[in-house]
């Protein structure tokens, strides 16, 4: 929120829900990552007697989708900043993410 403190009130009304959604998505990504550590990216399946094999796990699909959507919302949020602030905001976001890992 600190990064966006300089944008005007009308724009902030539109940006704030996206910030909240990005924060939720980060939590989902962390949980999915933990689940992936347990189940892996590949799961075996069996459809009837003769059809079986391996496929991408449900958790892997959800994780991939969530990461793509998270990256899109972060790019959208950064684009709402004035160009002069975008680089600094990108650096702050990267620093934050590095601390989280």
UniProtKB/TrEMBL annotation:
Which protein are we looking at? Uncharacterized protein
């Amino acid at each position: 929120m600190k990064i966006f403190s300089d944008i005007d009130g009308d724009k902030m009304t539109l940006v704030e829900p996206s910030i909240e959604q990005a924060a939720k998505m980060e939590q989902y990504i962390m949980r999915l990552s933990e689940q992936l550590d347990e189940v892996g990216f590949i799961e075996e399946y069996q459809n009837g007697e003769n059809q079986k094999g391996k496929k991408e796990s449900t958790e892997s699909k959800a994780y991939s989708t969530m990461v793509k959507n998270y990256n899109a919302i972060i790019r959208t949020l950064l684009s709402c900043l004035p160009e002069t602030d975008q680089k600094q905001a990108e650096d702050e976001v990267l620093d934050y993410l590095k601390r989280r890992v």
